[in-house]
Amino acid sequence: MAGFVREFTKGIVISNPIFILALGLCPALAVSNTIDNALGMSVGVIFVLLGANIIISLIRKSVPNIVRIPTFVVIIASFVTIVSLVFQAYVPALHESLGIYLPLIAVNCIILGRAEAFASKNPVTASIADALGISVGFALALLLIAFLREILGTGGLEVAGTSLFTLPVLSEHPLALFVLSPGAFLVIGLLLALFRRIGAIKHE
Amino acid sequence: MVSMLRRFLPVLYITLVVLITVTLLNFTESITRAQIEARQHERIEALLFELFPEMSDFFFEDDLYTIFDNSTEIGYAFLATGVGYAGDIDVLVGLEDATTLKGITVVSHQETPGLGDRITESDFINQFRGLDIDGVALRKDGGQVDGATGATISSQAVVDAVREAAMEKIKELR
Amino acid sequence: MSELFTIFISMALVNNFILVKFLGLCPFFGVSKKLGSALSMSAAVTFVMVAASAATWLINNYILIPFGVEYMNIVMYILIIASLVQIIELFIRRTNFALYNVFGIYLALITTNCAVLGITLINTNEAFSFIESMVAALGAGVGFTLVLAIMSGIRERLELADSPKAMKGLPIAFITATMLGLAFSGFGGIV
Asked: How many CB pairs under 8 A join A and C?
């Protein structure tokens, strides 16, 4: 159990995929414009990474070395297809606003990276802990960026169609830059610098 | 024989993996298919309802929706696509008869939030309600539509797309 | 003809893969430290994007759509891209070893580059014709090359600049990308 907790917390803090490893940046920037998109993407990533880590860990002893990577890729892509079909069936609006970034989970460096570096070498329980830790770490980072971008860019916060709050001045004069693509680079760059400044991340 | 087997084992393995995943995906697809189709139908129905609140049924053929109110034909709707500031803008156009628009609604767009996306606001959209087809142009071009503030290119794109598509459909309908 | 030109400009400048669509960011921050490697990388990516667009278009229109199994496209496209990269790598290694030394290491990275899968999915979503897909892939590649080249030029200078300690490296690269993105947003509306 202690091992499980250690693997889990590792992904959230020590090797946070976005802020420390700088992996999976493409979705982190593209779908962090609203909290809704960030939540949808997080659910997708958690499901795919968990599923892929479990299956890969189960078959890790039987897979021939030479076709290891193609096998992993096929497994990951299948989980992504499942997520895509389920989203399309039950949350079509979210499926549409995530666009090509949902299928692109299949080539997200985080997922193949965890499959290759962890699940292919470790038993199932450890792989589950690793998948949960890494994907929750990813989700938290994504939500933090989306939170800042949506508040600054629209002057309020809206989750699943219900408005949580609107700020007085900002909602009338929102800083549209932040919901646009350059704003994504700006927010993530400043957050990274801030984390380094307060010592949360060590310099390389 | 054994060495032959060993050589082909990886190929067999990956083939097996692909076969299993394809079967599983096929299964998932067959479960979700009905739901996905129902959602798409609902979405189109909701958009058509925005334009024709009195609609009871619709019929789709050759890119044209024919709208019925208790089996009386009350109008037509079709998709028009314009090139906006950042990409395609898809608009659903409703026709009351061969000269008058019923209204329009923006289906999808990628315009700038806070600027270009004002084309989705009712101030802009409502101008098309019951508008004569000859009036579908921006005021500066002699039409009756005021462009949305800060969204010149996007407004122009919508107006042009609606006019061109409507002209074409009207010709076909006659 | 003007339709194709519009697609090209839209892919290269207005909807730039790196700055607007955030596709292919790993090489953007990874290899954009030196101009030479940035150019080699983007040439390889462009080539694979065009080849992958051709291959996936054929598979999509002659196998997936006729059999009604479009939902299999993610798995199919990834397999096609992976095998295509393998074939290209093998071919270059056999025929031109000097070229292999320049591109070889980048080719292996391209399989998991989201720009390649991205362009094939965009082609499918937009229902582009074969020629349009080719032009779109070429446009995306040119835009990718352009931004990677500009970025590497700036980063070579940034290495020497006296930026705040917490900003050095990745954070300042992100801020630079912000400025580039703002500059590129000026291309909006020209198509």
From this structure: 116
Domain extent, residue A44, equals 2-150
Nearest 5°: the CA angle A31, C134, A23 is 30
Does B164 lie in the same domain as B117?
A: yes
Q: Which of residues 38-97 of A touch B (CB under 8 A)?
A: 62-64, 66-67, 70-71, 74-75, 78, 81-82, 85-86, 88-90, 92, 96
Q: How confident is the model at residue A144 (pLDDT cuts 50, 70, 90)?
A: very high
In a domain, residue C175? The reply is yes
Facing residue for C188 by CB, picked from B25, B26, B85 = B85
For residue B153, the enclosing domain spans: 57-173
Domain assignment present for A200 = no
Q: What is the average pLDDT across A48-55? A: 94
Give, as one character, the DSSP assignment of residue B88.
E
- Write out the residue range of the structural domain in which residue C162 sits: 36-186
The mean pLDDT of B59-83, rounded to a whole number, is: 84
Contacts with B144 (C-beta within 8 Å, 6 or more apart), sequence order? B127, B131, B132, B135, B136, B137
Would C64 be classed as within a structural domain? Answer: yes
Q: Tell me whether residue A32 is in a domain.
A: yes
Contact residues, chain B, for C14 at CB < 8 Å = 86-87
Please compute the mean of the pLDDT values over residues C117-132 and round it to a whole number: 91
Q: What is the pLDDT of residues C18-52, one digit of tens each?
A: 888 888 877 667 666 778 778 888 888 899 999 99
pLDDT tens across C80-111, in order? 988 888 888 888 888 877 777 777 667 767 77
Closest C-alpha among B64, B50, B66, B62 to residue B128:
B50
Q: Between C164, C168, C181, which is nearest A185 by CB?
A: C181
